[in-house]
What we know:
By secondary structure, the protein is α/β, with parallel strands linked by helices.
Amino acid sequence: MSVTGEGSQQADMKPTIVLVHGAFADASSWNGVIERLQQQEDYTVIAPPNPLRGVGADSAYLAGLLNQIDRPVLLTVQSYGGAMAATQRPVAAAAFSDASGPPAWRKLPSWAVVATGDKAAGADVVGAHARRAGADIVEVEGSHVIMISKPQVVSEHILKAARVVAGTQR
């Protein structure tokens, strides 16, 4: 799970938190996190359906959604990998072969929750990517879908990022 701060130049304004699910899943995978962010912290949270049609198409869809939000955005995403479940969504083959564009982490602050028991993406791979991005990293014992098994830990790290994006913490 990674978090990228958009619009951090607008100090002291709570960001809208956008939670994007990975492949073989739907937005319900964020339910525990959504509940904590909305009810306990009073954040505006959006968990859109990821089309899962390929990196280019999915990025364009997400960019269109983000461009409609008129306040700072905290974008939180979960890997394109996922677990087998009743609410899985099909994914196009292009989702695994499309080239991505320039990474946002090169210009924006990043945070990551690395699940040390991740066997889908590999904790070592996820950790290496987070370090490469210069992310503020929290490691926690759990599986690839850490936002389901440990929503409190994920929520806390998202809140830390949200405070930075809002300009209330450095």
